[in-house]
Amino acid sequence: MGDDWLVMAFDSTQQALRAEMLLEYAEVDIDLCPTPKEITAGCALSIRFPQLSLDTVRKIITSESVEIRGIYSRQGMGYDSIKL
């Protein structure tokens, strides 16, 4: 995974699958992936997406009230949270 990808983590599988459907409908380039062990979340599924799509993802998550744990960027050996 390159540094230009972000990871969105969830506390429920239902919200992860809902976000996947909404983002695919909006034609955002995403990958469903296992939640990295460095990110504490209640769901084993996360969504990777290009950093360039962050504004679009924020708008969809906010307007559709999708519950997420957070959005993270890869920093060295770990992840840093990005403010929504």
From TrEMBL:
The record's section on InterPro entries has:
Se/S_carrier-like
Q: Write down the Pfam families for this protein, in alphabetical order.
A: Se_S_carrier
What domain of life does the UniProt record list for this protein's source?
Bacteria
Which residue ranges does the record assign to the Putative Se/S carrier protein-like domain?
7-73
What protein name is recorded for this chain?
Answer: DUF3343 domain-containing protein
Q: Which organism is it from?
A: Paenibacillus mellifer
